[in-house]
Amino acid sequence: MSNPFVERYRVPPGQPVRLADWDPNDKSLFEGDKKEGKQALRRLNERLAELQELLYAEGKHKLLIVLQAMDTAGKDGVIRHVFKGVNPQGVEVANFKVPTPIELAHDYLWRVHQRTPASGQIVIFNRSHYEDVLVVRVKNLVPPERWSRRYHHIVEFERLLAEEGTTILKFYLHIDQEEQKKRLEARRDDPTKQWKFNPGDLEDRKLWPQYMEAYEEAISRTSSEWAPWFIVPANRKWYRNLVISQVIIDTLEGLDMRYPAPKADLSQIVIE
Ligand code: AMP
Ligand code: MG
Question: Ligand 1 within 6 A of 96 CB?
């Protein structure tokens, strides 16, 4: 892989991760300012729309995008801005919230496997099976001997998906605690954002160091050749969107997709 965004933000398999060493303000791969960054994203939106059309038409590949982050880091914003202009027919968003009693009565991958993409489809996971080694670990929702086995399950589950034709990209949106403070204050104070303010988010904020540790372990233990993690600097929303868009486009271009051949010799067909 030669795309600089992929090279820079991808976590190689087996590499230990210290999030403190990753700068959430980094914007080093884009020369311009915010306005130019947004313009660049508009061009990338058009390219992504073309590639998604091709993925859908060819009906061969499946693309799974996993978004994980602390509250306010911008999972919703990525979905809105990176996928702008993409045909909704071929894209689905799967939100994973606190599991229902029925979900809890099954293994933790049960609800996840049902939402993975079909051929020709893109599915975006807004939260994912990673919650089962993040919030579940930090809040002690199951004992350590249960969550500690899950890294291995997850690596093998993703291997299964990949071997059956799914391309997987996993993004951790990296903000720092000061940036989260600003964003939570904005949520608290802006009547159009207050609906998103969840007092429970403050509990998670207090557990920031424990979450960082859980993320570090999840990312380093599950970044694989077939399902790489990317640590995306996310204090600047426009740069976060650019990075994710670049990685998705580069990956889709690498699939070498083709429009299917016509179903008949169309040169002989006359439309009366
Ligand atoms: P939000 O995405 O902010 O609307 O909130 C969804 C909430 O569901 C978050 O607080 C997650 O941590 C929580 N959640 C998602 N998956 C799980 C899980 N497997 N176990 C417990 N909580 C979860
Ligand atoms: Mg929340």
Answer: yes
